[in-house]
Design goal:
The structure holds 2 protein chains of 2 kinds.
Chain A lengths: L1 H15 L2 H21 L7 E7 L4 H12 L3 E3 L8 H12 L5 E5 L3 H7 L3 E8 L3 H23 L2 H4 L1 E6 L6 H23 L1 H8 L2 H6 L4 H31 L7 H25 L3 H18 L12 H8 L2 H15 L7 H29 L1
Parallel strand pairs in A: 1-2, 1-3
Antiparallel strand pairs in A: 3-4
Chain B lengths: L1 H14 L2 H21 L7 E8 L3 H12 L3 E7 L5 H7 L4 E6 L13 E7 L3 H25 L6 E8 L6 H22 L2 H7 L3 H6 L4 H29 L9 H25 L3 H17 L10 H4 L1 H8 L2 H15 L3 H31 L1
Parallel strand pairs in B: 1-2, 1-3
Antiparallel strand pairs in B: 3-4
The chains are: A alpha/beta, B alpha/beta.
Chain lengths: ~375, ~375
């Protein structure tokens, strides 16, 4: 225990002696939360749409107005000749990405409505961003369905009432900011420790560690635990910032959240240490920790993409990514006001993951040591 | 010639570390393949609970349709009212679909229940898409009913989706992942270059050599350009051969854009490498910039709405080189566009590359004169 404390003290001094790096650890996440809190959102607004109205009738004007009135679309006039030229201009604008959708109201639109036959509306959507295209398709359907129902006085028949819980305005901030807290926390913790042993190996001071009477477990723990404080401090810092600045609610217990954050940070730090024992130089440690943590925790954790649609093996893979568990926890506790008992499984997974990675790191470190003797 | 030796030294330093080689060439391929399967914005298997409080036949029939649809997974069917909020808090379902009998819904009241979709608003994007699917299923059902009653729908949309007709997410994301990995690998191989030499006190040796500053600069950037291009070829190969994403446009412009992008991003990484004092700072700065580049590039989320929300930050997206590369790559891959369509983006990318390279060179002059 005393020896463990000595290693931790040494690591602490190391941290304090480099205040510039330490301040970077606090400032960068803050800047990131600030920028992304504003910038990242799935909200569709101002989507440019070109309109080709070949009917020029009262109903066609009304349909166009329906599109115009929605906050999603912005009508964009097409340059060039009218009539025949319209299609070419629209095709060009679609290919150039100037518009994302073209609305075509064919001639005879009003006539068919009057005769009681189904009048068709053409929509051409740019599918190159599949998510956006999918959502545009849904909005279109909604607008046109409402338009059609309005013509027959059937609005209330088609009405489906929707109620959104926890986030009634469907603000993306509630989704992304807690997620960002998780991602940033994981990256910070993995990087804090990723270079620790690799650095000692590069500078040659690892030899001293190797021959010291310290047990491998003590060295590994001693190099991990001091950073728990740093990472946890960063975590609470950005958590409070997102609460007070972006109004992300904190409906559950703060204590529960911090408890889980502690576990999560420990998992991230253990990942870093493991990478550090595997990497022969800081460069490798760095690249390794970024490849192992950045993309998977952004893309495979439910941060952006829902995990429901994944196939079984991939869902299993997502379970060994620490961010997956903490994302569920932070969203649940902060936004939904969930409780400790809702997340026992996630907590156990995090604890298990850090235990496994720490033991792997100890094993690997022991092997390195033996190779030197 | 002298330059050649420096490049050779840099490449040797990379090749000598087996782990680094694995990370540079094997890891990206694995990542593209795994991530290719993961990144799907397709919403399927949405877990929902259905609460049927209605006596109508329609409720049962619509439920059967929901059950048959691959879009939903009905976790629980119940006939007792439940507090949706509690159900959603447990997090097992994304939405509760409730059918209720409603008096006074006009002439259709006898056939149709009232439908309520109660959704978990946290993942607003997925919830909205899921709600749209429910709407679609109900609409189709009602239209059939109406048609049987002799009523045609007065207007209907015929939708054509261009460039990616089945809306496969991988088509959208695959080429983007290649651009992303290109960024990660090249930033991390160069951001360390000078700071490492300084930490190991070999920088002075390099400066005392007969190499001109310009040569040192180019020599440090060159290996990363080579690695980047090689990775690009590998990545594009995987994307085309493994995921069968069509490459409809010109390979020449694909590489031209990538080269411009590499010039920009490597100059940026070299600036990092001269302003930081140790390798762990280099790491933090590169990571910070990477996340910034990635999340402000339009790769994952649409950029259009930023102008409405935070115009000041929208400027950041305009000077983000990755944004242009991703746009050009998507256009070349999916739309088969030529430069007539993306010359503006190419020009912007070129401009950013020129500015960053000159900044980086100036900064390097200052760095070695110290």
């Amino acid at each position: 225990m005393r020896r463990l404390r000595a290693v931790m003290a040494k690591e602490f001094f190391h941290l304090l002696r480099d205040p510039r790096s330490l301040s970077v650890v606090f400032i960068m996440p803050l800047v990131q939360i600030f920028i992304f809190g504003y910038a990242i959102s799935f909200d569709l607004e101002n989507i440019p749409v070109a309109v080709i109205d070949q009917d020029h009738s009262e109903p066609s004007a009304r349909l166009i107005r329906d599109f115009e009135r929605s906050t999603v679309f912005v009508l964009k006039p097409l340059g060039g000749a009218r009539r025949e030229g319209d299609f070419e201009a629209a095709d060009w604008a679609l290919r150039a990405g100037r518009v994302k959708q073209v609305l075509v109201i064919p001639a005879g639109f009003a006539g068919r409505i009057r005769q009681g036959r189904t009048a068709e509306v053409g929509l051409i959507i740019d599918g190159s961003d599949s998510n956006v295209a999918n959502r545009l398709y849904q909005y279109d359907q909604m607008i046109i369905q409402r338009f059609a129902a309005g013509l027959k006085g059937l609005e209330d028949v088609f009405q489906v009432k929707t109620k959104v819980y926890f986030n009634p305005e469907s603000r993306s901030v509630f989704f992304f900011v807690p997620g960002l807290v998780a991602i940033i926390l994981l990256m910070i913790s993995a990087m804090l420790t990723a270079s620790s042993i690799a650095r000692e190996r590069e500078l040659g001071s690892a030899e001293l560690l190797f021959i010291s009477p310290l047990r491998s477990g003590e060295i590994i723990l001693g190099k991990t635990l001091p950073y728990v404080l740093v990472a946890l401090a960063t975590g609470s810092f950005i958590l409070f910032f997102s609460h007070f600045w972006f109004g992300v609610p904190l409906r559950g217990s703060l204590l529960v959240l911090l408890l889980f954050a502690l576990l999560f940070v420990l998992t991230g730090l253990s990942f870093g240490v493991l990478i550090s024992t595997l990497a022969p130089s800081q460069r490798v440690a760095m690249l390794g920790s970024v490849l192992a943590t950045l993309l998977p925790s952004i893309l495979l954790s439910g941060f952006i993409f829902p995990l429901d649609s994944l196939s079984a093996p991939l869902r299993a893979l997502s379970e060994i990514i620490p961010a997956t568990h903490f994302l569920r926890i932070i969203r649940g506790v902060a936004v939904k006001g969930a409780d400790l008992r809702h997340f026992l499984k996630e907590g156990a997974s995090l604890a298990g993951l850090s235990l496994i990675t720490l033991s792997l790191a100890v094993m690997r470190f022991t092997r390195l040591r033996r190779a030197r003797r | 010639m002298r330059l050649f030796y420096l490049v050779k030294k840099e490449i040797l330093e990379i090749v000598r570390q087996r782990e680094l080689l694995v990370l540079l060439f094997l890891a990206p391929i694995i990542q593209i393949i795994v991530l290719g399967y993961v990144i799907t914005t397709d919403i399927k298997n949405v877990p929902v609970e259905v609460v049927n409080l209605s006596n109508s036949r329609a409720a049962g029939e619509i439920t059967a349709r929901l059950q048959a649809s691959p879009l939903f997974r009905i976790v629980k069917l119940s006939e007792k009212p439940e507090k949706a909020e509690d159900v959603l808090r447990r997090g097992e379902v994304r939405a509760v679909i409730e059918f209720r009998d409603s008096p006074g819904r006009g002439r259709w009241a006898w056939t149709l229940p009232e439908v309520h979709i109660l959704m978990d608003g946290i993942d607003a994007n997925s919830s909205q898409i899921a709600a749209g699917y429910v709407n679609g299923i109900i609409k189709d059902y009602l239209q059939e009913k109406l048609r049987r009653a002799g009523l045609e729908m007065p207007a209907e949309a015929k939708t054509l989706i261009r460039y990616n007709p089945r809306l496969r997410s991988i088509n959208t994301m695959g080429p983007g992942i290649v651009a992303l990995l290109l960024t990660i690998l090249s930033v991390f191989t160069t951001a360390f270059s000078f700071v490492r030499e300084r930490e190991q006190h070999t920088m002075d040796t390099l400066l005392m050599s007969r190499l001109r500053p310009m040569e040192i600069f180019v020599g440090k950037a060159m290996p990363a350009v080579l690695i980047g291009l090689l990775d690009m070829v590998l990545g594009i190969g995987v994307v085309i051969l493994w995921f069968h994403i069509p490459l409809r446009g010109s390979v020449f412009y694909l590489f031209l854009a990538s080269l411009l992008y590499l010039a920009a991003i490597l100059s940026y990484a070299l600036i990092i490498s001269t302003v930081v004092v140790n390798q762990s700072q280099a790491m933090f700065f590169s990571w910070f910039s990477l996340v910034l580049f990635l999340l402000l590039s339009g790769f994952l989320t649409p950029l259009e709405s930023i102008w409405a929300r935070a115009p000041a930050l929208a400027v950041l997206t305009e000077i983000n080189p990755l944004r242009y590369l991703i746009k050009i790559i998507r256009e070349i891959f999916l739309k088969g566009n030529g430069p007539a369509f993306f010359w503006r983006d190419l020009l912007a990318l070129g401009g950013i590359a020129v500015v960053l390279t000159s900044l980086s060179l100036l900064n390097f002059r200052r760095f070695i004169s110290k």
